[in-house]
Amino acid sequence: MAAEEEGIKELIFIHIPGIPEALTMSGLVMIIIFFIAVMGSLSMKLAPRGFQNFLEFSVDWVNTKITDFMGEAGKPFFPLFAMLFSFIFISNLIGLVPGLKSPTSNISINLSLALIIFFATHFFGIMKKGVFGHFKHLIEPRVEPFALYVILAPLFFIIHTVGELVRPISLTMRLFFNILAKEILLAVLAFLFTIFIVLNIPEAKIGFFDISGIIKGSLVGLAVVLRPLIILLGAFVSFVQALVFTVLSMIYIGSALEHPEHESH
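The structure assignment produced for this chain is given below.
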């Protein structure tokens, strides 16, 4: 196991001694995002073209998602969700580049993102409704008669509290396992490709046909064909997981901001 871990580390060509690879890769992602922002702000025109057009489309797309899931009240949260989606999506994508590793394949990075959303949800909910107004849903729904409600309220509190605590765990594990699976698939494929190249198949011929060469060539060709297909699948998974994480974050914060339809009197 130790030898395998050392072999995997050798595949990562950006490594700063004393700094975990996940933090190094996260720093690289932040540099990429900063570079994209700077490039997008240069030579801006009223009639967008090329890269500016792509960035404006991306901004409109994020704003549309915010409006769909949070309404107009979600517009002030555009910087949070735009940064969240950009970080997760680019983090997922760079794992497709040989020698780089997705920061989101590290559970600590994903948990950090999930905790930001968890605390932001309650912070903005308290700012909007006050402490009691935000947390009173933990002892809802209100049932009649009141004596029955008094009995059921502790059960409601436990159920809702567990539900709140499960949210960051769910966000973390969903992203972690999907991106980890992508990383493992690519690593296994790279390993098989190397094995197939150096594989020593006993020489076997049928007439003029070199069967061993055909088998070896077929195996290498299979690995070559599968790699771009897995990369395309990885890019799709990268987008979907970034979208799911961001949309769920919008829903969580949006639910904390909305007023209940029926106030108890």
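Interim note for the steering committee: The beta strands are 205-206, 209-210. Residues 1-10 have pLDDT under 50 and may be disordered.
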